Amino acid sequence: MGDHFFSADPQSADVRRTVEARIWGKPYVFTTATGVFSRDRLDIGTAVLLRETEPPKRAGTFLDLGCGYGPIACALALEAPKATVWAVDVNNRALELTGVNAVAAGVADRVHAALPDDVPEDLLFDEIWSNPAIHIGKPELHKMLLHWLARLAPDGVAWFVVGKNLGGDSLQRWMTEQGYPCERVGSAKGFRVLRATR
C-alpha cells in the first residue's frame, strides 16, 4: 500500500475502531482508523509523555504537533478549560478523527485540527506538546522543529517524547545548541521526556 501515518491522504480503507485510554486520571474513548499513527492503542511514547508530566492548567494557546487522532489535544483542552489547542498533522484522516474525538470529549469548540500551512502565521504558542515523527528523517525533523519552536511565546515551554534508541539524547543536545535550552524531565520504557524553552 505504501501508506505511512505521515501520508497526507492514506489509501488504505478507512476502517474505524475505538480505543480506551486514561490520561491524567481521566478516562477517554477515542475513535481511530487505519492509516493513522498507533490506531490500536495509545502509543507507548505518548503514554510516557503524559505520565511523566503534569497537566497544564493555564490559559493560553497550545499546540499538539503531529496530533494523530488527537489524544494529546483532547486531554490538553479538557485539563485547561481556558486554553485553545491547535492540533496539527499532515494526515487528513488523522485531522478528521481529531475533530470526532474533540466532539466526544466535549472540547470541540477549543480544538482546531489543521494542516501545518493552515495555522495562522502570527500565532505564538504558550505550550507545544509532541511525540514527533522521528521516522521522517533527521533533516526533515530538524526543519519541522525549528519552524515550530520559533513560534514559542517568550515564556513558552515545549514538551517532547523521543525514544532513546531513536536519538532522544542527541535531540536534546541539538535543541539546546539551536538556542532552545532543553532538559530531560523523565525517562521510562526506553523513552526520554524533554522540556525545551526559549
Describe the structure.
Keywords: Methyltransferase, Transferase. This is Methyltransferase. It comes from Kribbella jiaozuonensis. InterPro entries: RsmC/RlmG, SAM-dependent_MTases_sf, Small_mtfrase_dom. By secondary structure, the protein is of the alpha/beta class. The chain has one domain: Rossmann fold. Helices cover 27% and strands 32% of the residues. It has 5 helices and 9 strands, in the order ββαβαβαββαβαββ. The chain has a 7-stranded mixed sheet, with helices on both faces. It has a two-stranded antiparallel ribbon with strand order 1-2. It is globular and about 40 Å long.
CATH-defined topology: Rossmann fold
Proportion of residues in helical segments? 25-40%
Number of domains: 1
Number of strands: 9
Q: What's the name of the CATH homologous superfamily?
A: Vaccinia Virus protein VP39
Q: Going across the major beta sheet, what is the strand order?
A: 5-4-3-6-7-9-8
Secondary-structure element series: EEHEHEHEEHEHEE
Please report the first level of CATH classification, the CATH class. Answer: Alpha Beta
Q: Which band does the percent of strand residues land in?
A: 25-35%
**What coarse outline follows from CA principal-axis ratios?**
globular
Individual helix count: 5
Biggest sheet features: 7 strands, mixed
Rg, rounded, reads 15 Å
